Amino acid sequence: MLQNRIYFDNAATTPLDPIVIEEMQEVFKTHFGNPSSVYSYGREAKMRIELARKKVAQLLNVKPGEIFFTSGGTESINSAVHMALCDLECKAIITSEIEHSATLNAIEDLSNRMDVPVHYLNIKENGHVDLDHLDALLSELQVKTYVSLMHANNEIGNVMDIEKAGAICHKYDAIFHCDTVQTIAHYPLNLKDNHVHFASGAAHKFHGPKGVGMLFINSDIHVMSMLKGGGQERNMRAGTENISGIVALAKALEISLTEIDTVGKEIEDLKKYFIQQLQKELPQITFNGDWDGSCLYNVISLRVPYEEAHNMLLMNLDIKGICVSGGSACSSGSQSVSHVIQKVYPDIKQTPMRISFSKYNTKEEVDRFIQILKETL
Ligand code: PLP
Q1: Which pLDDT does position 330 carry in this prediction?
Q2: CA-based torsion, 361, 366, 372, 373: positive or negative
Q3: What are the tens digits of pLDDT across the range 343-356?
Q4: Band (338; pLDDT cuts 50, 70, 90)
Q5: CB-ligand 1 contact for 326 (6 Å cutoff)
Q6: What are phi and psi of 368, to 5 degrees?
Q7: What ligand 1 atom has the least distance to the C-alpha of 330?
Q8: Cα dist. 375→182, 233, 307, 311, 315 in Å?
Q9: CA distance 175 to 180
Q10: Is 330 annotated as catalytic?
Q11: Which of 10, 80, 108, 268 would bridge with 198, disulfide CB 3.0–4.6 Å?
């Protein structure tokens, strides 16, 4: 599908599912009306949005009124921080230094401006955040606290125990934002039972389009609007809606969650095959994070002992048609070693490489990739 190239960077973004493209095209052609208009074109467009919201809510086992469509993960994360500090009047923040830069930078900016202290959780040797530290910190802090932790780390793939994190936050009445950008549509989530107040998602991580995402806001909390302007999204996020994007997000989520048992298992098997073959062919390569424990089934982070500059390895692979990431490829395009790898492995000088699979990858691609990597090294 990708002209002979091998695309192993699905944690950065995924190719669109053809069924999702079809659905978007249908919306582009038929529903150009402004959803706020009262005549039929507007009402029909509005109807598509509300049907999409209902579907997303149903798939995530929450209420339609708890789903808000945004422009993506970054906007959802920024909005949650803003609402926690400004509307819920949180007076302390707990997060970790290995969160996505959307979380780190949004928190740094607003906490500085509002003079709210930020506490960073200890990171364990295997790259997991220390949830006992979360418990200890919350027991010391005597103020309403905003906790923002990612469900799965986009760089090393570690999956946090969301149930435990949610229970700890609940015990201390803290506001819990979970960055679920890498797990929505990849796992069946149980947001309400896990005491999550905010959860963020982005359609392009599950074969939907870029520029559309969602924010779950638990109806137990009462917040004001994210973006001021018109009355869209029930007065919470102003601006004419991205109708085709929203419909596509719902469709992509539906496909992913319907396929989760079959496709999820195939991807997991592909990752296992990749690890086996790599260990056989290139035993000098090791793995980052909790790779054989609580880790995303589609992501594996490698450590390549390689003397040449980091950029050169990725570039040489690119020339040979291989698309992989050296860190977080979804941010600036720069290939300096990621803040996550630096934090978890401060003393290790080897080159990190993230491989992330999707349903469009095959064993043949794995074999070809390992052959090319071997030659390149
Ligand atoms: N959070 C995580 C864990 C991510 O992986 C990403 C994107 O890579 C984001 C947030 C930001 O999402 P977006 O780029 O869609 O705004």
Answers
A1: 46
A2: positive
A3: 999 988 888 999 99
A4: confident
A5: no
A6: -65, -40
A7: 8
A8: 32, 53, 15, 17, 14
A9: 15
A10: yes
A11: 80
Closest-lying ligand 1 atom to the alpha carbon of residue 75 = 16
Atom of ligand 1 nearest to the CA of 328: 8
Tell me how far apart the alpha carbons of residues 196 and 162 are, in angstroms, rounded to a whole number: 9
Residues 302, 157 contacting (CB under 8 angstroms): no
Q: What is the pLDDT of residue 351?
A: 85
Q: In Å, what is the CA distance from 320 to each residue of 5, 277, 323?
A: 8, 20, 9
Ligand 1 pocket, residue 196 CB under 6 Å: no
**Nearest alpha-carbon partner for 49 in 273, 184, 248, 185:** 248
Is there an atom of ligand 1 within 6 Å of 100 CB?
yes
In this predicted model, what pLDDT tens digit does every residue of 237-272 receive, in sequence order?
Answer: 999 999 999 999 999 999 999 999 999 999 999 999
Q: How far is the CA of 39 from the centre of ligand 1 (A)?
A: 37
Is 159's C-beta closer than 6 angstroms to any atom of ligand 1?
A: no
| pLDDT one-digit tens code per residue, 294-309 | 999 999 999 998 665 6
